[in-house]
Structure formats: C-alpha cells, structure tokens
Amino acid sequence: MNKQYDVVIIGAGAAGLYGALQFKNNISVLVLSKREFTLSNSSLAQGGIAAVLDQSHDNFKLHIADTLIAGKYKNNLAAIEVLVSEGPSDVLRLKEMGVDFDIDQTGKLQMTLEAGHSRHRIVHHKDSTGKAIVDTLLEQVQKCPNVDMCENTMVYELKKTNGGFIVSVINKDGLNENIFAKYCIIASGGIGRVYEYTTNSAIATGDGITLAYRLGSDIKHLSWIQFHPTAFAAEKDRERFLISEAVRGEGAILVNCNGERFAQQYDERGELAPRDVVSNAIMLESEKTNSEKFYLDITHKDPEFIKNRFPMIYAKCLEEGVDITKDKIPVFPCQHYLMGGIDVNLNAETTVKDLYAAGECSHTGVHGANRLASNSLLEALVFSRRASEDITRKLSARKDSDTIFDVPAPKDLSGNKLPQGIRTEIRKIMQDVHFVIKKPEKAAQSLERIKEILNNLENGGYEITSDFIEARSAATVAYIIMTEVINNDSK
Ligand SMILES: Cc1cc2nc3c(=O)[nH]c(=O)nc-3n(C[C@H](O)[C@H](O)[C@H](O)COP(=O)(O)OP(=O)(O)OC[C@H]3O[C@@H](n4cnc5c(N)ncnc54)[C@H](O)[C@@H]3O)c2cc1C
C-alpha cells in the first residue's frame, strides 16, 4: 500500500472490483476490503443478473416497465434508462472476462424468469452467480499493474483535504495508516447487520454510508428496505439463508403456529403475492397469534421432485435437521436489501465533490421503493463503471499528476475499552422500530436512546477498533432510519 493514489475504492464486492477494472494503467488505484476479499453480499448472490440480451423476445421498454412496477413508480426513470440500456454490454463484458454463465443446448446464454420480470432475462451461474462473478473479477483485478489490493483493512475515517481525501484505515495489524486519494469511490455494500435477522454477509454494517454522512453527503431513503418473507428461521444464526420464492411457486403453503393457512386473508394472491406483501402478512399474523413461529409446507409434493428441484435448499435444511420432504420448514421474514443509501447522480457522484458511491450503499433511484429481483448486481456494474469513467475524465483535466500531497502521520488508536452489547441493543431497537412494518411511535420513543449511544461513542474516548467502527455505523444508520420513519418517508 502506497501513501498516495489517484483513486481509492472502499469495497471489493461487484461494485468495487468492476469499478477498479475500468481504469487505464496510468491511473493508480487502491481497493480496500475490511475482511477477506471473498466476504461480501456479492459473493452470496444466488439468482443472477437481469439484462435484455435477446431482443427477439425482450426489449428495454419491458425491462424499464417491470422495474417501475416493482418500485411502485417511486424510481428515478433516467437512472433506470441508463441501467437497462447500458447494462447488457456490462454483462457481456463479464462473460468475456470468463464468468461461466449457464448456457442452453444451442450454446446461447440461458435466461431464466424471476418474480416481477415479464420476460426470461436473468443470466446465472447455477444458484451461485455472485461467487462466480466475484471470483472472476478478483482474478482480473489481481492482474492489473495499476491496482493495489488490501484485505483485512478497514476504513474508519474519510476527510476532505486540499486536492482530494485522506482515507484513514485500521490495517491488518490493528494500526492506523493514512492514504491520500484524489478521488474516492465508496462501494461498501448494505446494512443488513443492523438487524437481528438478515441474509446479508457480516460486512454489511453500513460503514460507507456512515463515512459519507459524516462528510456531509446526502443520504436518501435509508428506510426503504426490502425484507424477504421466507428465510430459514434458525434459532442461533444471524445470517439466514433464503427459502426461495420458487418453493412457494411449486405449491408450498405458508402456515402459522397453529398450522393454519393465512396468506389469502391479507392478499388474494396468497403465498404468491410480492415479497413485501407476504412479509407484511406474516408480521400482522404474528401480532394476531402472538407467535413468531411460521412454516412453509411442501411435504404434499413427491419427495424425489423436491430433491431434484431444490437440491441446495434440501441439503441446507437437512444440515439444520429439517427434511423438507417430511417436515415443515420454519421461516420468518428477514432484512435482505437496501434500496436507499448515499444519494448519487447518473455518474454515481455524491453531493460531496469528487466522492462517488456505487452498489448497494448508493441510492441511484433505480429501485424505487422495492427492488426488482436481479437488478442489484446490474446496478453495481453499470454505476461503478460510470463512476470510474467520470473520474477518468476529471483526472485527464487535472494538472497535478506529479504533486506529492501531505498525509498525516499515523495516530495512536488506543483508548477506553468499548462496553459490550451496544450493537445487540441497536439491533433489537431496529427490529422493533422498522422490521417490515414501520412504527413511527416506537421510533420516536427509541430515538433518544440512539442519540445517547451515538453521543457516548463519539465522546467516550474509545479505542478505535473494528468493533467500535461497526457500532458507530450501526448507531448512525439506525439514527437516520428512525428519523425517516418518524418523518414518514413512506414507500
Ligand atoms: C443472499 C443474497 C442473495 C442475493 N441474490 C441476488 C441476485 O441473485 N441478484 C442480484 O442482482 N442481487 C442479489 N443480491 C444483492 C446483491 O448481491 C448485492 O446488492 C450486491 O452484490 C452488492 O454489491 P456491492 O459491491 O455494493 O457490495 P458487497 O458485495 O457487499 O461488497 C462490499 C465490500 O465493502 C467492503 N467494506 C465494507 N465496509 C468497509 C470498510 N469500512 N472498510 C473497507 N471495506 C469495507 C466489504 O469488505 C466488501 O468487500 C443478493 C443478496 C444476498 C444477501
């Protein structure tokens, strides 16, 4: 790691890695990841990427219309037009780089259908598309002579300085290092770990959103969160795996703690209603029955059919002691995706000059109030590329390529020991205030406590560790979400 770069990218998921690949060899780039490179929401993506790749049966207008319908027309149309029209060439670039997308018997890319899409347009690699993409991107970035990569290096502070930014990190030895960057792209992913139940990776703690917020960048619609209705309800695990919609699509029924089917009482589409509607039905039914016990039941289907159709889900549930051919699957909604985030324009630039954001941490307006399945990886690619293109244009107009910028000396990170339980308390509050259903009265009650926690973190003289940074991020994200809930930033 050097002391000075043209561009520092915070994050090594799909957005960070793809963005890094766009820079020519004369532009120096540093990619940072707070844990191992392979730990990210991108690596967990299962279904695939949506793109109009075969105009004989699909077109941009249809993809735009599907995205708007899913987003309840609260999307930014200009951003969707960019996403849909430019996305296909980014997906084809992934294929050229070596992502092994599944192909059909005729040798063409296999395209599947997902909820909310009116056409078959999801390309995939089995049920582990994200891992296939991240592995390929990592391999490509590692070949770039102009890109340095550091894992287990956590950014804890971002400050504007003359000509760029000072990026302060805790390195793998727990020590502070400071780096100068002319431009910075935040690609730090989502906020799932601010909740008790989430599908998100352990890195999804809202750090990048907090860094941008502290720099004065606009944050928009952070309370626009997608909750998946049927995650496996393991008692012990915070990170939960999904029982895909396809299981309901194949006839699984949803029952409450008394074994009663209830979804149709809330929406005539029953179990097959959109994600937010089914999640909502479960939460209302939970209040009615005073129980969080819910089950998906597909035992009426032929066991061989179930095993062939859902091999991964069958195997995962079996690991948890549930044989889905004989047993009901315990499920409960969980946090899954963030639609809002650091507000950016069509070039992914935030409201802070020369600061960019891409991927799940950003708010491009593409998703509106509800993400259409498989549009998020596409958004990460398109807008991280646009960020890099914009930075490249700006760099070519700068005249300070030989300047050595000042970098502050490392500081001592030691301090008081962080009390235990801060994040647990925040997760409980979030679960109470805005888990599927927003509760403004509870938000109003809990906001004072969150302010108290934030104030204590800011002024307690604590040692700067990854636990401290993640607690500060959780408190900041909770504060922003709760303020929105109170102010009725309605979906
Ligand atoms: C289970 C699951 C299934 C999904 N399936 C799909 C799907 O089929 N199709 C689809 O389109 N989307 C899917 N998604 C959503 C999609 O995977 C994500 O929205 C997308 O991959 C986010 O990419 P990203 O690059 O923005 O963030 P991530 O991939 O999460 O990467 C974030 C990076 O930021 C780094 N970072 C964070 N904080 C710091 C810090 N302080 N300092 C340094 N580094 C930091 C992390 O270490 C990591 O490298 C799924 C998500 C989940 C959880």
Give the bound compounds.
flavin-adenine dinucleotide
| CATH level-two architecture of the largest domain | 3-Layer(bba) Sandwich
The tally of beta strands, per DSSP, is 18
The 3D shape can be described as globular
Count of all domains: 3
Superfamily (CATH H level) name of the largest domain: FAD/NAD(P)-binding domain
Structural class: alpha/beta
Largest sheet entry: 7 strands, mixed
CATH class of the largest domain: Alpha Beta
CATH topology-level name of the largest domain: FAD/NAD(P)-binding domain
Q: State the end-to-end CA separation.
A: 43 Å
* Number of helical regions: 15
Q: What would the average pLDDT be, to the nearest integer?
A: 95
Q: Provide the low-confidence segments as ranges.
A: none
Radius of gyration: 22 Å
Measured as a percent range, the helix fraction is: 25-40%
Query: Percent of residues in beta strands?
Result: 15-25%
Task: List the SSEs and their pairings.
Layout: E1 4-10, H1 14-21, E2 29-32, H2 41-44, E3 49-50, H3 60-70, H4 77-97, E4 122-123, H5 129-142, E5 147-150, E6 154-161, E7 164-170, E8 176-186, H6 207-214, E9 219-220, E10 225-232, H7 245-249, E11 253-255, H8 263-266, H9 275-289, E12 294-297, H10 303-309, H11 311-319, E13 329-338, E14 341-343, E15 355-357, E16 362-363, H12 376-397, H13 422-433, E17 434-435, E18 437-438, H14 440-459, H15 466-486
Helix pairs in contact: 1-5, 1-12, 3-4, 4-12, 6-15, 13-14, 13-15, 14-15
